[in-house]
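ok trying this again, last paste got cut off
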Amino acid sequence: MKKLFGLMAASLLALTLTPGFAAAQSKVTIAVGGGSCLCYLPTVLAKQLGEYEKAGVAVELVDLKGGSDALKAVLGGSADVVSGYFDHCVNLAAKKQELQSFVIYDRYPGLVLVVSPSNTSEIKSVKDLAGKKVGVSAPGSSTDFFLKYLLKKNGLDPTSAAVIGVGLGATAVAAMQQGQIDAAVMLDPAVTVLQGSHPDLKILADTRSQKDTLALFGGEYPGGALYTTTAWIKSHEKEVQALTNAIVNTLAWIHSHSPEDIMAKMPDEIVGKNKEQYLAALKNTIPMFSETGKMDPKGAEAVLAVFSEGSPEVAKANIDVTKTWTNKYVEQAKTTGSSSK
């Protein structure tokens, strides 16, 4: 696994050499399900703003291909916490894996089902995806779950499309442009990047806004969150609270600053060379971000309903979805407002 944003390592090392710093900081490794994706921006921005350090925790971000890989890192013991989609907590509950989210930063999932530019005339609806190659970030990730839900919702077998792992960033855009896949479930900034080259890009489903999310799921549908095993939460309450404080403060900062301010804080390697495109994607994404960090109980129920429809295993598991999330740490978060410059 590669370290995310190696340029920050030197500054972090300098901080750890400061007298008293090491004693005050707990170390936590967060596995991110695709650091370039704007859906995970609060996790990265918190690092850039120094919010983790302010909260008393030294965080290492590890960038992985998709949410399923990030989950494997935590279950395998190479990371402590996942920055990924809440729906994994529900899906794994059916397998008797006790996972729990403790702060939500995406109130909408931001998932977009897009037709590749070369297939616009052939694929007109979700039903046309039967037998087609559809890109997802990684098999078993939230992008994959979303695809299967849409196929089932449109009367198709959830396995009727061939799933191809293409990542979330430049690799996904390249796969679409080169015709390696017929369609893909993508997130910003990749969607906006692709639209920049193909203004007539065909979108079959879009959950970047409240209107479209409500139309598709019948309610708000939480996306990105920090989650981990319930055992780790119980044994690391101090660290969980610190991480929650950092994210809640970062969300407040996001909603009190301009998109330009936010972009200026992000690492150059994430923004990329085309700043105008990144800014456009960021503007599309900001409404997705939670203002409070709290889980909407109805949103959690919506996730369970979606998975129950698409997965017989989840439907039969009698899952108590209230055990897959907690608002405890958000409710007792120590906030500093949005004073960071």
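PB: full thing came through this time. The longest helix spans residues 237-254.
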